[in-house]
Amino acid sequence: MLEFLVRRSAVGVGACALAMGTQAEAQTSAPAAPVVAKDDAQMLIETQQRRIDTLEERLRILEARLAIPAAPPTPARTPDQQVAETKGQVKPPPILLTVQRTTDFEAAPPPAKRNGEQAAVVFVNGLPRFNSVDGHWWFRPRGRLFLDASTTAGAFPGRNITGTALGSARLGMEGAVGNLSWALEGEFSENQVVWKSAFVNIRHKLFGVEADAAIGNRFNDRTMDGSVGLGTTPFTDFNTVAATIIPRRGFWGVGVQERLYAKNWHASVQVTGEDPNNIGDGDDGLTVVSRAHWAPTLSKGLTLHLGGWGFHERLGDETGSLVRSSAIAGGFNTLVRARPGPVTGVTSDTGYGAELALIAGKFWTQNEWGRRVLHRPGGDYTHDAFALSAGWFVFGSTPPYDARRGTWARARIDHPVTAGGWGALALRARYQEADCRGLPLGGLGRSTTLGGTWYINKITRVLLDATDWHIANPGGAPGSVDSGQTLNLGLQVQF
């Protein structure tokens, strides 16, 4: 303010001095000159006064905006046509430069801060994600909604059932601060509410390779089909390898997990106790799970997937079935199962398997095999499973294979229906078998499935599976050996 007043006074004094000097010169000049000189001086004084009045008005505006910080100097812009005509000859007064800098600052976006005070909002998978400008932290909600319908025909009368189900209703959130991220998610499924993802993850380097260290309840890394959720697997349900060659504690477990990633390979190891929904009336079991894959690119558009996995589980005091009955024709009709029979006296179990997949343009094939061994003092029991599947994207997308993790990912839709396009269409087929005949009173189940998936957009898809199945459970009861056909329809929204 003081600098401005001094400059304004200087301008006024200069104007007065100029006027007096002009008058003195006029008095010593020719008789006709005084009238012209006096008019010029008067005009100059009036011009300077108008400029001073204009600057005072701008000053009052600036004083009312004291909350706006000064911006770094920027090149001066011409304030009016008169200065523009003399550009390069007359330098604008300093106060005019200050006004112009402030005006430029107001028109420009605020500078990014590195303390997370300023944030931006982007949409990820249909939900808002809040990011700091520097990317140091972010947060977003997430969830999924699966709606299912099923009908079975041609089987023993008690198995021919039709119905609808809420396959999964999941809601949660996730976020990150620097290299530390977290996820918390609960699900309503099968008439109960359970915790799913609930972990903290730390990104770091190990042996010069990118790595994740997760602490908490994180989904297993086991089999190609069973390392991702149902929202990204090709069919409406997991294949028999992912669903049956599994530790007694299931797909989840509270513990620690370390994963190493590269461009086309990964390796992981996980050590856990039980899942977070156990009732806590005894010692936990202890499970170690490991998986690795390699996906070399054979040629342009042709990728090979080779993978292997294994686990060992020391059983604790928790009670429950040691072997899961295998869903042969989808998850809705629980009557179409290969029964494992009762198994007792088991102290630990070991599982292992292999993966072979090929992705070629719009075509893919995925093949898995696995075996589980139940260790007991009187002799070991085993059960096996395998699944052969293939698919083809007719239009709108390509197989969403993630070579970095060795799993399926979300499909990228070229022209979503919600944007005026046709979405994407994929056709697929699978043959699978679950063989529990190595267990006391264990059965056999096999099925052939033909189906298609219509991807409406990145987060929404409709699946239709037609399955012809056969089961052979021992016991001789009516319907123990049976065959039939099941039609499953699913709408899945995962955001």
Structural account:
The chain is α+β, with helices and mostly antiparallel strands. The protein is 16% helix and 45% strand. It is built from five helices and 23 strands. The strands form three sheets. A 16-stranded antiparallel barrel has the order 3-4-5-6-7-8-9-10-12-15-16-17-20-21-22-23. Strands 13-14 form a two-stranded antiparallel ribbon. Helix 1 runs antiparallel to helix 2 and helix 2 (33-63) packs parallel to helix 4 (94-107). The longest helix is centred in the N-terminal third of the chain and has 31 residues, at 33-63. The protein is elongated. Residues 1-38, 67-71 and 73-116 have low confidence and may be disordered.
Structure, briefly:
By secondary structure, the chain is of the alpha+beta class.
Please state how the strands of the largest beta sheet are arranged side by side: 3-4-5-6-7-8-9-10-12-15-16-17-20-21-22-23
Instruction: Give the DSSP E fraction (strand runs of 2 or more residues).
Output: 35-45%
End-to-end C-alpha gap = 56 Å
Q: Secondary-structure element order, as H and E?
A: HHHHEEEEEEEHEEEEEEEEEEEEEEEE
Q: State the secondary-structure class.
A: alpha+beta
Overall mean pLDDT score?
A: 82
Number of distinct beta strands: 23
Low-confidence stretches: 1-38, 67-71, 73-116
- Spatial shape: elongated
Largest sheet: 16 strands, antiparallel, barrel
| Proportion in helices | 10-25%
Radius of gyration over all CA atoms, rounded: 37 Å
- Please tally the helical runs, counting DSSP H or I stretches of 4 or more residues: 5
